[in-house]
Amino acid sequence: MEELKISLTTRRKLLVQMYYRYLLASSSLEYIKQDILDETQAQLDEKTALIANDINEKLEELIIIVEEHLSIDWKWERLPALIGAIFVIGSYEIKYTDTPKPVTINEMVKLTKELEPDFDYKFINAVLDKIRKI
């Protein structure tokens, strides 16, 4: 049986979708993963599943990292869930993967423009850039 491989962009988008729903509904991550896969008829490769589980284990830490780098006018609770999910995935990738940090930031900005076009993508860029420097 051939191992399923998905692109990094597709992986990022799936992870953002998972964590968006997770932050909104607080359902189990396993339920949300399956729900997204059923809806999109997509398949989850083993690496994406492992990353999702690792993010889940580090979620509190990742949220704290984001909170520490938000401007004084922003609080985690005030962020739209989708933006929170983008920050979680971006922070994880910056902190725990070998992906070049500027690539991660650029990909998160592109996802913001695609999924939440009315949100100020420069805010995403600024916060993730601060996180990149730690």
From TrEMBL:
Entry protein name: Transcription antitermination factor NusB
Keyword Plastid among record annotations: no
Gene behind the chain: nusB
Coiled-coil regions listed: none
NusB/RsmB/TIM44 domain location: 10-132
Taxonomic path: Bacteria, Bacillati, Mycoplasmatota, Mollicutes, Entomoplasmatales
Keyword field contains Zinc-finger: no
UniProt GO BP: DNA-templated transcription termination; transcription antitermination
Family classification: Belongs to the NusB family.
Keyword terms: RNA-binding, Transcription, Transcription antitermination, Transcription regulation
Highest taxon above the source species: Bacteria
